[in-house]
Specification:
elongated; 9 helices; DNA polymerase, domain 1; 6-stranded parallel beta sheet; 2 domains; alpha/beta; single chain; 218 residues; 8 strands; Rossmann fold; two-stranded antiparallel ribbon
């Protein structure tokens, strides 16, 4: 049995369409041009405040508008679930990993309120014994503290192999700083080539993940 922690956006779920819609509603209110979906994916990864800062800078909006824009975005983001979908075979893979006896958690830079909202909407919450959001601690990824906190919550004093599954450079750096093996999902929101991202193993289909975990642990 292992303790396996997952990133959320770009790893288990494709949330970019909902984030895109929320961002463009805020930009429209500010009289600014919309983002493309590709830009939205590119801006995701370091938490909602950084996303809004990137969105604001891309549209030439002043820094003093950050707090107002973030508040408007956060209000929409908290309930942005309708356009988000799990990646193919995610639910099957989670069921298989649970059947193998692994304990699983979530460590994401998404704020905890929208994290729980979208996980509940998609029926994902039941799979995870610990959930750490981007505002659960004073720091967020790539600082290793949230990831370490998630593993501590999973362990409950029990020792087990630890694996982190994510899709991005932020996730890879976080795993590296925590001294953990990192499994890279290659179809998410990464900005670099796979070879440029430090990882222990990579996969492009969640159907392959349970066997990959078995191989790594073996």
């Amino acid at each position: 049995m292992a303790h396996i922690v997952f990133d959320l956006d770009g790893t288990l779920i494709d949330s970019a369409p909902d984030i895109h819609a929320a961002a463009n509603a805020v930009l429209a209110e500010a009289g600014a041009a919309p983002l493309s979906l590709a830009d939205t994916r590119r801006f995701i990864g370091n938490g909602a405040p950084v996303f809004v800062a990137r969105m604001r800078a891309a549209r030439g909006l002043p820094e003093e508008a950050q707090a107002r824009l973030y508040a408007a975005f956060a209000a929409r983001y908290a309930e942005a679930v309708e356009l988000t979908k799990p990646y193919a075979s995610v639910l099957v893979a989670l069921d298989a990993l649970a059947a193998q006896g692994h304990r699983m958690g979530i460590c994401t830079n998404k704020p905890i309120v929208p994290t729980r909202a979208v996980m509940n909407h998609l029926g994902l919450t039941q799979h995870f014994a610990a959930i750490i959001g981007g505002d659960s601690l004073p720091v967020h990824k790539p600082d290793p503290a949230p990831l370490q906190a998630c593993f501590q919550a999973l362990a409950g004093g029990a020792d087990a192999p630890q694996l982190y599954v994510g899709d991005s450079e932020v996730d890879a750096e976080c795993a590296q700083r925590a001294g953990l093996r990192f499994l890279l999902y290659t179809q998410g929101y990464r900005k670099s080539e796979v070879a440029q991202i430090a990882h222990h193993a990579a996969f492009d289909d969640f159907a392959a993940l349970p066997d990959l975990v078995t191989q790594i642990l073996g």
